[in-house]
Amino acid sequence: MGVLYLKQGCLSAAESCLRESLGILRHIFSYEPQNITPSLLDNLGDLCRTRRDLEAAEVFFNEAYFLLEEHVANEPEDIERYRQLANLHCKLGQISGEKGEYKAAQDQFQLCIDMMKDLH
């Protein structure tokens, strides 16, 4: 539901739904954080970025990245998750650029490019 609100531009409703979902998942999987859905964290990062809360967006994107990185390490044949990792490098690069951290942005974009090349 939160993603639907986000796509409709209803940011307050989207944030409420997404944060509630994340809270439920954190409670259920308190001893297994790897089971928290990286896409939920990615959506919250997108929402925060839309609101110009770059610090919060970066935290959500980094957490999603950590979970995906662990998944890919355990299942290297999962191409879709690998592609999501590359996309998160792009998003982190955009945030770094928006914060004026151009070297960090360049590094993130290069990682994204390198990962996408690995897919082809």
UniProtKB/TrEMBL annotation:
* Protein name according to UniProt: MalT-like TPR region domain-containing protein
SUPFAM superfamilies per UniProt:
TPR-like (SSF48452)
Pfam family for this entry, one: TPR_8
Give the organism, scientific name. Trieres chinensis
What InterPro entries is this protein classified in? TPR-like_helical_dom_sf, TPR_rpt
